[in-house]
Specification:
This protein is an alpha+beta fold. The protein contains four helices and ten strands, in the order αβαββαβββββαββ. A hairpin with a 3-residue loop joins strand 6 (145-169) and strand 7.
Length: 252
């Protein structure tokens, strides 16, 4: 792992460790046979970004109304949607990963059943890393000689709060929906575009890349400014993000 990825990953690891230590002070569930565990499939990145994105989650009930969960998986961006005005000659790199975790508080007075069933709020942290690389040809522009080469690395670290509801069906099947999840976010990017291209066209194509990245990563537009993407190198920025996901699980 590169240096600019190490610090966010360590922060996430510390967050997971603090969750585990804090959970040990709570009383056990009264029924020793209570189903404490849920294995889930997070289908949100699979549906929104790429069919290759497989993300799995594990939730552990700690007390009648508290739990923690961890999520990890493969993550890549939809490159074809990124460059709808280009012909992509070759995808040289398209990969990534994400890890996340949350600590949940189920509403005791609101829910008829104990965790993991019902309305909850929680504290969460997530880290995303993705790499993009491609050789491209511009359509309908004879002034550009040869092709262009695009390379990008993006990291996003988020820390926030969430509100969700988990349905438990017939004591086994779970449907977990997080519908509110504002966060403070830190972005790190290194993006370059190389080729024989005029400065006006250069900015136009970079703006097209920027627009799609804003749609994928809320708050990414705060990286924009003089010289955005014009030179290689890492940049840090703070902004705001949101978390929303839908997971299907099996309880045991």
């Amino acid at each position: 792992m590169k240096k600019n990825q190490l610090f966010p990953a360590l922060l996430t690891l510390v967050f997971f460790s603090s969750i585990n230590l804090y959970s040990q002070v709570h009383t056990e569930l009264p029924d020793s046979g209570y189903k404490r565990n849920v294995i889930k499939w997070n289908i949100t990145p699979f549906l929104l970004f790429s069919k290759k994105n497989i993300n799995l989650s594990y939730e552990r009930v700690l007390s009648p109304y508290r739990s923690f969960s961890v999520n990890a998986g493969y993550f890549e961006l939809p490159i074809m949607a990124l460059m709808d005005s280009f012909i992509i000659d070759k995808v040289t790199r398209k990969k990534g990963f994400n890890i996340s975790g949350d600590y949940r508080f189920y509403f005791k007075n609101r829910n008829k059943r104990m965790a993991p069933d019902g309305l909850y709020w929680g504290i969460y942290s997530s880290f995303y890393h993705t790499q993009i690389g491609m050789d491209i040809t511009v359509l309908d522009n004879p002034d550009i000689q040869g092709g262009l080469s695009f390379e990008g690395r993006i990291n996003a670290l988020n820390l926030g709060v969430e509100l969700g509801y988990q349905f438990v069906i017939k004591d086994r099947l779970t449907l977990d929906l997080i519908f509110v999840g504002p966060s403070a976010s830190m972005y790190n990017r290194e993006l370059t575009l190389d080729g024989e291209i005029s400065s006006e066209e250069y900015e136009e194509y970079l703006q097209a890349i920027h627009d799609i990245l804003v749609g994928i990563f809320p708050g990414f537009d705060q990286l924009a400014g003089d010289g955005f993407l014009n030179v290689s190198g890492a940049n840090l920025s703070f902004g705001y993000g949101f978390r929303y996901l839908f997971q299907i699980g099996y309880r045991f």
